[in-house]
Amino acid sequence: MKRELPGSPTCITIYQSDIYIGFTNLIRVYDYEGNQKSSWASAGDSAIFTSLAVRDSFLYAADAGKRRVLKYRTDGTLLAAFDGKREPDALHGFIIPSPYFDLAIAPDGELWVVNPGNLALENYTPEGRLRGYWNKTGADINGFSGCCGPAQIAILPDGSFVTAEKGLVRIKVHRASGELESVVAPPQLFANGTHAPDLAVGSRGEIYALDFDRKMIRIFERKKP
């Protein structure tokens, strides 16, 4: 089965029987046969959708262009938007130096958003209030290198974070509290690569990494003791 899309997709997620595809500044909904069911209102000319996550009939969209997270109902109704500012008069909320801005929903239902300019993962309530965060800076194996990161995240069934970095490309697992647990793929595995792999996880804890530079999907599984 092949379906032509009306533009270049930037992100995707699945909920129940629907496929939600983000394009530059809007979201379209498809069924499993590839038929379009709906097209949501544009988020504006400067919006750039980079990540989608959905749970309990609510969809969250990361908008790197306007440095915000949008909250929708799964019928396309826009409910709220938040910019990551801890106080209304704060100078900065989400700091996004490049179009990498990821989010994910943990197995316990909590929303986590990358604040890449702060090299941080931030936990938000459904209303957009900051609940907690952790960050790791530095090029050493424990930190996130460069100006911004991690570029991509996914959350394992046990609540651990899988992170991918750009530039110094590597994939790691951090515990829910932020401590480094293991290195999944060192930079040597991505020789001459510069793009952070997109990430997904399976129900058994396997990690899928989309290697843009080599045009392949890498699959990692935990070593058995």
Question: How are the SSEs placed, and which strands pair?
Answer:
Layout: E1 11-15, E2 18-22, E3 27-30, E4 36-39, E5 49-55, E6 58-63, E7 68-73, E8 78-82, E9 103-105, E10 111-115, E11 120-124, E12 130-135, E13 152-155, E14 161-165, E15 170-174, E16 180-185, E17 198-201, E18 207-211, E19 216-220
Antiparallel strand pairs: 1-2, 2-3, 3-4, 5-6, 6-7, 7-8, 9-10, 10-11, 11-12, 13-14, 14-15, 15-16, 17-18, 18-19
Describe the overall structure:
The chain has strands spanning about 10-15, 20, 25-30, 35-40, 50-55, 60-65, 70-75, 80, 105, 110-115, 120-125, 130-135, 150-155, 160-165, 170-175, 180-185, 200, 205-210, 215-220. With about 220 residues, it is mainly β. The protein has a domain at about 85-220: Neuraminidase (6 Propeller), CATH 2.120.10.30. The strands form 5 sheets. A 4-stranded antiparallel beta sheet has the order 1-2-3-4, with no helix packed on it. The chain is globular. The chain starts with 10 loop residues before the first strand and ends in a 5-residue tail after the last strand. The mean pLDDT is about 95.
